Amino acid sequence: MKFNQRFLSVVAAMATVWSVATVQAAVVPFTEEFAADNAAWKDAAGADLAFVAAGGPDGSGFVTTPFSFAASAADAPLTVMRGQDSYDSSADAFVGNWISDGVTQFTAWVRHNAPMPLTLFARFATPVNFPGAAGIEFAPVLPNTWTLLTIEINPTSPQIVYEGPTANYNSVFGNVGNVQIGISVPGALAGSTQPLTLDLDKPTIVPEPAALGMMTLGALTLLRRTTK
What we know:
The chain is an alpha+beta fold. Helices cover 19% and strands 31% of the residues.
């Protein structure tokens, strides 16, 4: 009983520390599992993404939306999904200063049913949606296959393309409010009215391994000290 009381005290103390630490900060590490609903993620027009309870990359729930390239020019960026501060997507777990929060990588599982491989990107922007930057997955995503989209977040990442002269690593990742998933329109499908779908699961932000190790070590050290 004595151990249990101390253990619960440690858990309560750690919860308090984390709640203070995550005020106006992203939750790092964090994965949106879409376990029960769409977590307030939207499509390009602001409508709710559809929630599917099973069938994700690990068999669990995911979100999906229809789209087409009907109004899109070749090579234009087409935003399809939005996780945004204004929608309270994922309870704002992605909202914050990713630089000070230690975010070094964004990943997400994606799937589409276009008749050819597509180049997908993740767009990051401030809560007012500018300035922003696109993180491009250079490897084309094959049709009808869950594929892990991986974007390295750092000042020299070759995947990051900034939008306009005022956008840079500090101005974008120092105040992330919007996370969006999109597609670079292939020339062969530009203007096509063919109905397509895009699926999304497990968008994730993680810190560098060293930082995550220090966080874990700190928690274990606190627990050991209070349970002696």
